[in-house]
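Long-time lurker. I teach an intro course on protein structure, and each term I like to show students one example going from raw sequence to a predicted 3D structure in token notation. This year I'd like something fresh instead of my usual example. Would anyone be willing to generate the tokens for the chain below so I can use it in lecture? Attribution to the forum is fine with me.
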Amino acid sequence: MNKVILIDDEEHLRTACSQALELADIEVECFNNSNGALDCVTPVWPGVIVTDIRMPGASGLDVLNQAMELDPELPVILITGHGDIQMAVKAIRDGAYDFIEKPFASEILVDTVRRALEKRRLALENLALRTALEKGKGLENRLVGHSSEINRLRQEVENFAATDADVLIHGETGVGKELVARSLHDYSPRKNGRFVAINCGALPENMIESELFGHEAGAFTGALKKRIGRIEYANGGTLFLDELESMPMDLQIKLLRVLQDRVVVPLGSNDDVKIDVRIVAATKENLRERASAGYFREDLYYRLEVLSLFVPPLRQRGDDIPLLFKHFVDLACVRYNKPPISLTPAKISELRAHNWPGNVRELQNAALRFTLVNTDVVAPVDFDETQGLAEQMNTHEQNLIQTALAKNDNSLKATYEALKISRKTLYDKMQKHRIASETSERIE
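-- Reply from a regular --
Happy to contribute to a lecture. Here you go:
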């Protein structure tokens, strides 16, 4: 795994560097220019490149560009003279891993190369994990688990996907109703059409009709031009209506006509627009009870209930929790370039003991936190419906960087080494989260 391609036109420097690296048990292949130096490099080559910036012919920056074209994840370390530091800093912003300023001690070279090799090792482990996940894109890798409840659900999804009938999905908040709806679409003859999702509970009442059915120019104040609705936009594909129980009663009548006649009438128009769309709706409420109480149209309920799916809460499929948690951890490792993480028996017991009131969404957030913070004990985070996954990830990332800075007495070098990231990555993330350094140490 410990391999280095060393490119430098100065023979004495090549000899000194290769000896230092070989004494550190690092395999070195030397070149006096870039010709043929990168012939062995592939996206799975287990090594790093060390190159001088200034050389006759192709420069170190040319080598960097060639390496980035072959594999953007490949670490490239630049050797630079004092007058080339600004060039090296720019190269780091363009993708180089690090630079070493001449003259340098052999310990600095070995330390920098070892950190780059560790980064490469993690990247290749991540690639292997990503490849394994890509191979498992079937329904079992979407609706994860081995319980009888999830096996039944997968079988029903397969059966219903083959039909073109409308479907009603029941389940608590956070169980994955949209994922089930997407699976129905992706495994159906409509898979090449659009999957259009709309949350009926997230739109103001005065906007939902225009959003669903569209409008003509001048249909209402502010309607300056014609706009097709989401139903028509989904033509040839699938329309997913989440939180159907929130749809106003007057729009339920119009939706019933869509289901029966497959036509829509935009606001401000008298003309029917024919559509070819499959409708999948979801609810967290008992629509039968709401219909009996007069809060939901009975005819619409019975029209949708012909095919129905129930997505069970996590508490009813406890054996699936460790599998599902590990699945989310693996996905997070791929997304954030982390090495694969194993779960200990103690962690699995802790996962089983938690009630998971937020269901799969809460479990996914807990897996994300566990992956990013890498704590010894899984501490499921509080389920927060007001924040999306990206917002919560940004918060965790900011807290992690601030904690690492504090633990390392605000030493930027110690911080990026502890976090196993490059100095450029730390700088970019501190800028992103507006984290001020309390040290005069320059991150460049």
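Some talking points for your students: Residues 376-383, 439-444 have pLDDT under 50 and may be disordered. The two ends are 29 Å apart (CA to CA).
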